[in-house]
Amino acid sequence: MKKLEKTLRAFANASRLKILKYLLSRRDGASVGMIKDASGCSYKAASKHLAILFANDIVDREQSGYAVNYRIADNPRPEIAALLQLLR
Questions:
Q1: 38, burial (CB in 10 Å: exposed 0-12, middle 13-18, buried 19+)
Q2: What DSSP element (H or E) covers 9?
Q3: pTM to 2 decimals?
Q4: Structural domain for 40, as ranges
Q5: Structural domain count, the chain
Q6: CA geometry: angle 45, 60, 27, nearest 5 deg
Q7: Residue 60, class by beta-carbon neighbours within 10 Å (0-12 exposed, 13-18 middle, 19+ buried)?
Q8: How far apart are CA 47 and CA 11, in angstroms?
Q9: pLDDT over 90 (residue 64)
Q10: What is the domain-level CATH number for residue 11?
Q11: Alpha carbon 65 to chain centroid distance?
């Protein structure tokens, strides 16, 4: 039950929902800079939101040098998949 509570808290933020909606529209993922521009957050805020989403297995990240690319996690848990479906 605790894991579900953490997952729901990760979704319970307007900026994180904007980020997820944006990432759902991009198959190849996006950099923090692109996500920042799309969500209207500062770079620091976007990074913090992405860290929360990553910690809850909602997004995956891939680092190439200094660049970090984020995308929706492959094969998310059923409750995450259901919540993401609501954003599509």
A1: middle
A2: helix 2-11
A3: 0.93
A4: 2-87
A5: 1
A6: 100
A7: middle
A8: 15
A9: no
A10: 1.10.10.10
A11: 21
